Amino acid sequence: MSFPADFVLNFTTEIWSLYGVGAAILIVRLVDRARRRSSLSDWLPDDWVALQLAFWYTLLTVSFYKIVNGGISNFMTEEEVAALTPETTAMRVIGSKWVLVSEQSMIFTIWSCKVIMLLVYRRLTSGLKQERFINAVAVWAAIGFVAVQRFKISAGRTIQHFR
Q: Considering the entire predicted model, what is its pTM?
């Protein structure tokens, strides 16, 4: 299904505005950390997770942009399915790949934020009896991440169907 022009314009404006805010927050955080630490080897684990978070968030934003502005998502009406040609089928396959990229980058973006928060809370509770609760939540979160990935991969079509 192609998206209406006003939706595309509004969505594009919103997604890049939100990206700008998120990227600015990440940049300020990383620049501040770089100023406070003498070298990259002094960075803490949550700093490295924040650095890779920038990649996943950028990929998420770009994939949303490609899906909406390309009009090549895998959402189709019955009429569009009936009117598929080899060219439009190829475009839809590309769109489906972008949907897969957006889903995975969304998962990694969300879970990277969770990891950062767990690392910050662990540092805040270091040496306190509450630290064991943070460790338990971290184990639970790791199990949850593995479960999400396992079900995400096993629930849909295999990657071979995207060729």
A: 0.83
